[in-house]
Structure formats: structure tokens, C-alpha cells
Amino acid sequence: TGVQTCALPIWEMGLNPLPCPHQVSIAVWPWGSYLGEEGLARGVRTKVSSWRRMEPNVMPVAAKGTGIYVNSSLAKVEALKGGYDEAILLNTHGHVAECTGENLFVVKDGVIITPPTSSGALEGLTRHSIMTIARDKGYEVVEANLLRSDLYLADEVFLTGTAAEIIGVSAIGDRTIGSGRMGPLTGKLEAEFRRRIEAGAPED
User: pTM for the complete prediction?
Assistant: First the structure.
């Protein structure tokens, strides 16, 4: 009898992905609050991770690549085992980059500061939305390098992300931030962000 063969895509085992076929799948499911309902109410407790955010010349941190998430996973597990909700990653120069799955903002004397993408921060869509909303409301928004001490001296700290949306930080390590709950400016931005999502359009 003749041997039957089937046509298979040409691919190779190794580090060269160029000849491999592309396949895409999309999964959709209900998802509650990424950092927990309690975190929304009281703010999340964070710690500065012992793991450093990868440099842009090590991996393209401007993209959400699967391999890059190993860096975030190590920091996340360390934080959870330490009794915290989330981890803050510094880059190799000691500047604040971002959290494991969120961008980070600091409020100091009414000015909103967030690390630049050159620090290793992802150019997140929610990050951009919050910066736009804040400027629409007349707040000064600055992209600047932040040191660890800038976090401790902040009036408010909050996080943004597709899953987390916008959520306040109540503590970093053993230091309480502001009142220990979502700050007033963070609350205003969160309310306006929510309003625009539900309305589907910016305020006139």
C-alpha cells in the first residue's frame, strides 16, 4: 500500500522563528477587579521589588511580549509571598520603571509625575488616557525619572493599567502613602475615567 502524507506547515525547531507559521487565538471571559475589590476601596499595598526591570536594550519593553512577563512574574510572586498586593520595579539605574502589570504615577504638590518610557515603562493605553484626562482637568502632568525616595515623599501614588484601570496605593513597604487610602486627586481622575468609559465620549 502507498504511504499517505499530509501537507504540514514548514517550521523548524530552534531559535529562528522566521519560517514558523503565525497562529492567533482570542479568549474572552468575565474578569473582576484585577487587584481585588478591597484594593479598590482602600488602595493596594506595594513593595519595591528586589528584581530589576529589564533594560530596553535587553528586551523590547515597549511591547507586551510573553518572555518579558517572566520578569514581572518573579516580582509579583515575591510581593505576594511578602504579604503585599503588588510590586514596584526599579530599572538598573535605580529609577522607578513600573509595576508588574501597571504604570505608576506620583502626585506631589498638585503635580502628577510618571516615569518616561525610557525608564522601562510601557507606553500603556490607560496611562495615556489618564494623562489626557488630567491635562483636560487643568493638572500639570510631567514625565520624569523618579527615585525610590520620591515614592515615599509623594502625597499620592496610583497605578493604571488595562486590567487594573486606576487604583490608589496605600503603602509602599512599611511606609503609608498620604492618608493610607485612595488620594483625593486620584479619586477625581478615577471618577472621570469611569464616567468617560460609561458615556463613551469626553465631557463637553
Answer: 0.86
